[in-house]
Amino acid sequence: MPVGIFRVCLVVITAIVNHPLLFPKENGTVPENTEEIIQKMKEREESLRLEKLRLEQEIAGQEAAQKALEKAAKVVEDIKEERVPWDMWTALSMVIFLLIELWRQDFQEGNWQDTGADEDDMAVLGKAFKGVAFPNKAILASFYEKRILGTTGDMARMREMVEGFADDLLEALRSVCNRDADMEVEDCMGVGSMYENWRVRKPFVCDLIVPFAPPEPYCFRSQIWCSGDSFPPDEQGYGTIKVCRADEDVTGCICDKTKLGEDMLCLLHSQGNTTRPSSEMEDLLCFKNTQYLDADQVMKWFQIAVTKAWNKISHKYEFDLSFSLLDSPGALKIKFRSGKSIAFNLTPVVQYENSDVYFISHFPRNGLAADLPSSTHWFLTFAVYERRFIQLISKMLPANACHVSCLQILSFLHGKQCSLTGPSGLTNYHLKTVMLHLLQTRPSQDWAPEKLEDRLQDMLKFLEKCLHEKKLYHFFIGNGKVPAELGFPIVFQRAEPLNLFRPFVLHRDIYRKTIDTFHEMLRNTSALINEYTVHIPLAQTNGIQKESI
């Protein structure tokens, strides 16, 4: 306590002694430049304040960086802890997604054939038919009798004449060819609408295919798109043909794939059985420097051979023979002295294994068909099986069944509309595919002759649905319900269904043109049919029915 009192007294005494009033002004030591000193002190204070702010910012930045590093380390630690559960959920989600996708594809494959059989599906279709005047049964029957039925006899006479001449021409072709070096030509077969009795539009054109094989000791070994190797989408429906020696290993030897040393010899292949020279393979109609059969080379060979054969037998006939199309191997035209002419196609093909599926060198082109991937890719045709299926199913249908009549009328309507508005992406082959699908899915009694009108409407509705969905599947490829009596190769039944309308997805302009042509054909149906129909009393026809289907 005394010490505290002493300190207070000392402070008071010091304050009194240093108070300015105790000293005179003349003895003062206050400097004259007081304002300058104060200004410098303020500047110093300001600089200290700024330095303080800078240091505070640096400290804050260091603290933020430290916090970010700590947060990142924590996130990494969390990721490490959750990696296993997250990967498990991701994998599980992917598996579930794949299973759903596989189930969807299997469901589509199992049900794409059944579209035409479901009456409920048919009921919701036909939007384009609303308000369309559709001819009744009497008018359709009269039209069919007058416009279509009379052409059957003409087709039969033309087929007989063309087949006889083609056999003579091929026999002459065999005689002018070198049996030891040239391709061996077999007998021709008729395919297509002329031989299925549903072609209606003139001029009639017979389509004949001619199988050929290489000379001994060579053979053809083919590879198709559905054989297991991956083919791009634009090559679906195609295959390649390799020219090999008959005794050559199918799987190939390692000596063809690796370089053996000079002192090493393959025990499977002798020195004389090495890779053949390029000129020899070109003589076998292969693409340059390959063993793959070239469609362009085949076309040139066949045209030259046909020309030689005709020169040998031309003196026997009183007509001229010429090529109507130079980009097709056997598009021939017979011209009589009277001015009349007959056209037919003689197309070389290669048999696929021991079946009646054939690789065709050149396929008739249309607005929807895409260009060939290359001249070594050959399109597969199932025309022989299509003809056999129609013959087989016709035996199970009622007498005078209307399936061919429906296809003929639909083909006529489409052809007439295209002659008015120009070609579209639809072809007669698409129309035949529609008929084949309905033949398989509808009961046989539904094709009785008196149901012509109903079945024609079914075909139009089915076609409308396919156009709307841009999906029309090939009848044979991917169809597991093909009758066993046909002996159809199982490899094609197990293949993925082939969408004939896939080009519509890629070419919107052609799709729009096709849709417009189809709708215009529906609107003009009555006018087109009435133009070729004899007059029928009103009491018999009851006019033209308005159908909303």
UniProtKB/TrEMBL annotation:
Membrane topology value: Single-pass type I membrane protein
Record keywords: Cell membrane, Coiled coil, Glycoprotein, Membrane, Nucleus, Signal, Transmembrane, Transmembrane helix
Chief location category: membrane
Matching Pfam families: Mab-21_C
Gene Ontology annotations for the cellular component aspect, listed alphabetically: nuclear outer membrane; plasma membrane
Residue stretches making up the Mab-21-like HhH/H2TH-like domain: 404-477
Localization per Swiss-Prot or TrEMBL: Cell membrane; Nucleus outer membrane
Regions annotated as coiled coil: 38-82
InterPro entries to which the protein is assigned, alphabetical: ITPRIP-like, Mab-21_HhH/H2TH-like, MAB21L/cGLR
Family: Belongs to the ITPRIP family.
Record PANTHER family: CELL FATE DETERMINING PROTEIN MAB21-RELATED (PTHR10656), INOSITOL 1,4,5-TRISPHOSPHATE RECEPTOR-INTERACTING PROTEIN (PTHR10656:SF8)
Name the UniProt record assigns to this protein: Inositol 1,4,5-trisphosphate receptor-interacting protein
Species this chain originates from: Penelope pileata
Upper lineage: Eukaryota, Metazoa, Chordata, Craniata, Vertebrata
